[in-house]
Design brief:
This protein has about 70 residues and is an all-alpha fold. The chain is about 75% helix and about 0% strand. The radius of gyration is 14 Å and the shape is elongated. The chain starts with a helix and ends with a helix.
């Protein structure tokens, strides 16, 4: 029983991440995830402010999807 609850919660969290990523233009998605993971903004893709804006949007959408806000 417990395993099925863990699996269901994992599926739900992955869906929340996927839905949040889908609010970001495709060309920025990998870079947004990378910047969250590394803590560094890749400068060669777009202006830093553009990436920060999309990163904030992703984090806000993810928090909303996870019912944190």
């Amino acid at each position: 029983m417990m395993r099925s609850e863990v699996v269901e919660e994992s599926i739900w969290k992955i869906k929340c991440i996927r839905d949040a990523l889908n609010t970001i233009p495709e060309e920025y998605r990998a870079n947004i995830i990378e910047s969250i993971y590394t803590g560094e903004m890749p400068r060669e893709i777009a202006h830093e402010n553009t990436l920060k804006r999309w990163r904030r949007k992703f984090i806000r959408e993810l928090a909303y999807n996870l019912n944190l806000i």
